Amino acid sequence: MGAPLLLVENLKKYFEIRKGFLGKKVYLRAVDGVSLTLARGETIAIVGESGCGKTTLGKTILRLYEPTDGRIIFDGRDITHLKWKDLKWYRCETGLVQQDPFGALPPFMTVRRILEEPLIINGIKSKREREEKVYRALERVKLTPIEDFINKYPHMLSGGQQQRLVIARATILEPKMVVADEPVSMLDASVRIEILKLLQELQYKYNQSIIYITHDLSTTKYFSERIYIMYAAQIIESAGTSELLQNPMHPYTKALLNVIPDPDPNNRFIIKDVPAGEPPNLMSPPLGCRFHPRCPNFMKGVCDVKEPPTIEVTKDHYVMCWLYG
Ligand code: SF4
C-alpha cells in the first residue's frame, strides 16, 4: 500500500489551566497518547461523545494547536513542531470542514470573495486563474448554476448550501487531506446524506484522504474504511469499519452501537449494557481504565489500578481493555 499519507504517533495535547486563588497549574488532557494512520485516498472515522477530545485531535493534526508531545508525519515530513511560517505548504495540502457552516463563513463576503480568499493568501495573482478555480470549486460541490450563487452572501443560502460552500473553500486548493469535523450534525436529516455523499465523491474522484469526526456511529458505515473509537482523550478501539461494527469488543463501543436506532431488524445489535454516568473530567481522569466508573464489566483491583495496554486481538483489530489483556 506504500507509506501512509499521515502518521500520528502518541500525540498529546494538554491545555494549561490555572485554578484557585493562588493560580495552581492543572492540565486538561484533551488528547492523550493517540496514534493513527491515514492512507492516501482513505477515509477514517473518529467517533466519540462530546468532550472526548476528537475535535482537539483534528485541530492538533492540522497544527491549529501546538502539540504537547508525540509526532505528526505528513507525506513523509515531520510537521510536529514546524514554525507557523514553515507550515504554509501544509495549509495548502490540508483543509478543514467545520461543524457550523454559518459560523464558519464570514457574513460580509460574497461566495466569490470567500472562495478567492485562500487563493489570494496563497499567492495566485492572476484574476482569471482565480475565477477559473472558483468556478471549478463550485461545480465540484454542485452549487450550480453558478451564476445563481456566486454573488450571494452566506445568509442567503440554505444550511446545506452553506456547508457545500464550506467544503468548496476547504478543497479549493485541492488538498491531499481534509478534516471534516461533525460536518452534518447541524444540518437537517434530509441534507445530511447529500453532504456525506458529496464528501465521498471528492474522496473517490480526487483521491483525497478524509478524517471524518463524528459522534454518530451510524453514519460511519456508509462513509469510512476504518473507525477509531475515542473515549476520554484516548483511542480505545480501532478496526476496519465492517469488522468493528460486526464484532465490537470494547464495552464502550458496544454501548455506542446499542444506542443506534436501526430500522432494519436484521441489523439491530442486541446488547443490553448501556453504561450510566458521565465521561470523566479530563483534568483528573480516573486511575486505571478511564471507562471503569461506567463499565458493566468492571473488575475491581484490575481495571481501577493500571491502564490497560492496547492489544491486537484479531488481525488489525485493536482494543484497550483488560478483558483482552
Ligand atoms: Fe471495562 Fe475493565 Fe475493560 Fe475498562 S479495562 S473497559 S473497566 S473491563
In short:
With 325 residues, the protein is α/β, with parallel strands linked by helices.
Description:
By secondary structure, the chain is α/β, with parallel strands linked by helices. The protein has a single domain, classed as P-loop containing nucleotide triphosphate hydrolases (Rossmann fold, 3-Layer(aba) Sandwich). 28% of the residues lie in helices and 24% in strands. It has ten helices and twelve strands. The protein has helices at residues 54-61, 88-93, 101-104, 111-121, 127-140, 159-171, 189-206, 220-223, 241-246, 251-258, and strands spanning 6-19, 24-38, 43-47, 69-74, 77-78, 94-97, 177-181, 209-214, 226-231, 234-240, 310-314, 317-320. The strands form two sheets. An eight-stranded mixed β-sheet has the order 6-7-8-3-9-10-12-11. Helix 6 packs parallel to helix 7 (189-206). Residues 268-273 have low confidence and may be disordered.
Identify low-pLDDT runs.
Answer: 268-273
Biggest β-sheet: strands ordered side by side in the sheet: 6-7-8-3-9-10-12-11
- Mind telling me the C-alpha Rg? 21 Å
Bound ions, cofactors and other small molecules, one mention each = iron/sulfur cluster
CATH topology: Rossmann fold
Fourth-level CATH superfamily? P-loop containing nucleotide triphosphate hydrolases
Strand content: 15-25%
Head-to-tail CA distance between termini: 30 Å
State the share of residues found in helices, binned by percent: 25-40%
Mean pLDDT: 91
Please tell me the total number of domains. 1
Number of helices in the DSSP assignment: 10
Query: Which architecture would the CATH scheme give at its second level?
Result: 3-Layer(aba) Sandwich
- CATH class category label: Alpha Beta
- Morphology call: globular
Structural class: alpha/beta
N to C succession of SSEs: EEEHEEHEHHHHEHEHEEHHEE
